TrEMBL record:
Keyword Oxidoreductase annotated: yes
PANTHER family listed in its UniProt record: APOPTOSIS-INDUCING FACTOR 1 (PTHR43557), RIESKE DOMAIN-CONTAINING PROTEIN-RELATED (PTHR43557:SF2)
Domain Reductase C-terminal span(s) in chain numbering: 331-414
Taxonomic source organism: Chondromyces apiculatus DSM 436
Name of the featured protein: Ferredoxin reductase
Length: 416
């Protein structure tokens, strides 16, 4: 008897959705079941801290594909459904209602959750004005509270924090950003770009308290809202009154399912170049996966849409038995105050930064070199630079710093 093969995908996010549609596009003919615990079909998260928070995008515009597409592709969507365990011996995913879904291949695409701010003794869930930002539900909970004149204390000066700062200012909300680091985006960029971005935010009235450590919060009498954020700056304790608090201090990958099933986990679910975990019948992709990177020369876990999409296509090809290695060259974009920032590579360990263009005109690129090789670039308002930089960074090209800085030399001419 012919038994149809089944791929079960756990997590209907950016990567999970792309695995499902990619399987069909690449010719997979078996059953595809996409299980997600959110109420929505796969959607894009980037607008959550940008256009959707600003109210400029409607819910349906977030969806990666209309629901009808999944039907057309014969993909079974099981939304609002949590996978609670993976039984590798039986090759079954266990759902929250106790039912089981048999699989031939399982793809874990569980993403991550916002990292919690340690606030000992405080029941954060009960606080109506303390927010984290990962999902549509999170934005829906906070958006109506972003009223002109309110004061938002943003904990974390990373991308999500700065994008929310930009949106909040545009909504008339006053913003104070607190971070333990001495400068914004300190984990991902050099001081030149940090200084520039901080300057743009300051011009729009954002106040920075950095480096400052959050010591705790004070609550209202009912213990249902934060009243003040307590910070220590230069050894002095201070209290910042807050109407709203948003914590954006990073992501914790959702690896518990994999770990409980005995799969290797080390800052993400450990996978090979083809997205296979330590069990070849189980793959993992996107934010939850830790993959080898030829570019980085080590294992990395990436948190970005391009990685989620590329990694998903790699997994689909692996399922189909025509494996292609993951490219895993990190790239990312952000939008703040109408500026588009694009980054490629990892600048960690650079020994020289060369800039091209004009910070005043908000059109410049910062190139990061290590021992003469281009390892990363941050590009603001110069899309052509970005396209060339992607190619140069992917091969860590040896480039003449003078040519990088000289606007008369076309960057594209340095490629190849
Ligand atoms: P997710 O999209 O998080 O999807 C995982 C899904 O799995 C979720 O729906 C989750 O609820 C579900 N799930 C988890 N466990 C289970 C379970 N046991 N059972 C069923 N379902 C489960 N990237 C960029 O490149 N550019 C940007 O500008 C950018 N901006 C961002 C702004 C915000 C506010 C956020 C939150 C992220 C942003 N990102 C951006 C990052 C990007 O969205 C992520 O890298 C991407 O969504 C990762 O896709 P993923 O599928 O791995 O995880």
């Amino acid at each position: 008897m012919y038994v149809e093969e089944t791929v079960v995908i756990v997590g209907a996010g950016q990567a999970g959705g792309e695995v499902a549609t990619s399987l069909r596009q690449q010719g997979y003919e078996g059953r595809v079941v996409l299980v997600g615990d959110e109420a929505h079909p796969p959607y894009q998260r980037p607008p959550l801290s940008k256009g959707f928070l600003l109210g400029k995008m409607q819910l349906a515009q977030l969806y990666l594909k209309p629901e009808a597409t999944y039907e057309k592709f014969n993909i079974t969507l099981k939304l609002g459904t949590r996978v609670t365990a993976i039984d590798r011996e039986a090759r079954e995913a266990v759902l929250q209602d106790g039912s089981r879904l048999g699989y031939d291949k399982l793809v874990i695409a569980t993403g991550g959750r916002a990292r919690l701010l340690p606030l000992p003794g405080v029941e954060q869930r009960k606080l109506g004005n303390l927010f984290y930002l990962r999902s549509i539900a999170d934005v829906e909970a906070m958006r109506a509270r972003f009223e002109a004149g309110k004061h938002l204390v943003l904990i974390g000066a990373g991308y999500v924090g700065l994008e929310v700062a930009s949106a909040a200012v545009q909504l008339g909300v006053k913003v104070t950003v607190v971070d333990v680091a001495p400068r914004v985006l300190s984990r991902v960029t050099g001081p030149e770009v940090s200084g520039f971005i901080e300057g743009v935010h300051r011009e729009r009235g954002v106040v920075f308290r950095m480096p400052a450590a959050v010591q705790g919060v004070t609550l209202d009498a009912a213990e249902e809202a934060v009243r003040e954020v307590i910070v220590a700056q230069d050894g002095v304790e201070d209290r910042i009154a807050a109407d709203l608090v948003l914590v954006g201090i990073g992501l914790t990958p959702n690896t518990e399912l994999a770990a409980a099933a005995g799969l290797a986990v080390d800052d993400g679910i450990v996978v090979d170049e083809m997205a296979r975990t330590s069990d070849p019948a189980v793959l993992a992709v996107g934010d939850c996966a830790n993959q080898p990177s030829a570019y980085a020369g080590r294992r990395i876990r990436l948190e970005s849409v391009p990685n989620a999409m590329e990694h998903a296509r790699v997994a689909a090809a692996t399922v189909l038995g025509k494996p292609v290695p993951s490219p895993a060259v990190p790239w990312f974009w952000s939008e703040q105050f109408g500026m588009r920032l694009q980054m490629v590579g990892l600048s960690t360990g650079y020994d020289r930064c060369v800039t091209r263009g004009s910070m005043e005109n908000r059109a410049f690129s910062a190139f990061y070199l290590a021992e003469g090789r281009l390892i990363a670039a941050d590009v603001i308002g110069r899309p052509a630079d970005f396209q060339a930089a992607k190619k140069l960074v992917a091969v860590k090209a040896v480039v003449d710093p003078g040519a990088l800085a000289d606007e008369n030399v076309a960057l594209a001419s340095l490629v190849g």
